[in-house]
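Narrative of accomplishments. A recurring question from our advisory board has been how the design workflow behaves on a single, concrete structure rather than in aggregate. To address it, we present the structure tokens for one chain from the evaluation set, followed by the sequence designed for it. No filtering or post-editing was applied between the two.
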């Protein structure tokens, strides 16, 4: 019960933080409308050829850069996730082969153990009556 209310409170706090972040971002864009709505063109000079894009609004260029960064982040996250899945599958197959080997060795031990003799292990070590248990 306590965990459920904790999760609800954490979710509310996260929503509140995102609202604050988006509000500050909107405030920054609103206060700097002159910059974000100005038109600029991007150019690339390669010494042998000049490339230039048509004029675009700065906020559009910021949006394109944001999306490019987002796609790169998602790409690397999925790349790592697939790599971890591959490692996980490999480790699971290793575990399964080890478990099969253990069961095979246990069966072999059962066949080698004489069935008419009971094997008992004693965990207590007995000392002769005249000796101390602790030697200094």
């Amino acid at each position: 019960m306590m965990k459920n209310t904790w999760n609800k409170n954490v979710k509310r706090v996260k929503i509140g933080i995102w609202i604050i972040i988006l509000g500050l971002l909107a405030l920054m864009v609103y206060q700097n409308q002159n910059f974000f709505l100005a038109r600029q063109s991007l150019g690339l000079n390669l010494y042998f050829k000049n490339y230039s894009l048509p004029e675009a609004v700065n906020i559009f260029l910021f949006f394109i850069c944001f999306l490019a960064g987002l796609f790169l982040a998602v790409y690397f996250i999925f790349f790592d996730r697939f790599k971890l899945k591959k490692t996980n599958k490999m480790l699971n197959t290793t575990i399964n082969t080890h478990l099969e080997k253990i069961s095979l060795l246990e069966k072999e031990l059962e066949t080698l153990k004489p069935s008419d003799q009971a094997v008992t292990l004693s965990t207590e070590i007995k000392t002769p009556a005249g000796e101390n248990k602790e030697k200094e």
